[in-house]
Amino acid sequence: MREIDILRERLERPADGVAGTLKVAWGAFDLLLAICHECEDRSAELFAAFAFASAAAAQGRHLIWAAPSLSPPSETVASGAALVMDDDLEKIADALANLAQVLGRCLSSAARAADDSGDQGACADAAREADQIYQLLNRDP
Known about the structure:
Number of domains: 1
Number of strands: 0
Distance between the termini: 24 Å
Number of helices: 5
Largest sheet: none
Structural class: mainly alpha
Strand content: under 5%
């Protein structure tokens, strides 16, 4: 769960403009994908939410990849490291929903700030995927 907090904090304090936001967003989508995929089979009640959120995270990561200002990520957040998973899936869903909400706001802001139309489109489209993840995992009415 510490990985989620670290990425959320990095999103809340973006550096290096749009390019920096894209790099952190790539990592956030990568982590969302890995954790959602890991949680899919751990609960019948939350299976659909995690499965659809996993698909949205994969799509968001793909959209970010197309942004002209993204320098190719040298590594993924989740690769090579074992994710420390909490047993409380509702707590995980809440943390991921919060991360997705911050990610969506950050990407929407980057879309407005971007000079390149390719960056604008990638950020806006990826923000919609982050918002979808938030809607899927948010348990508050």
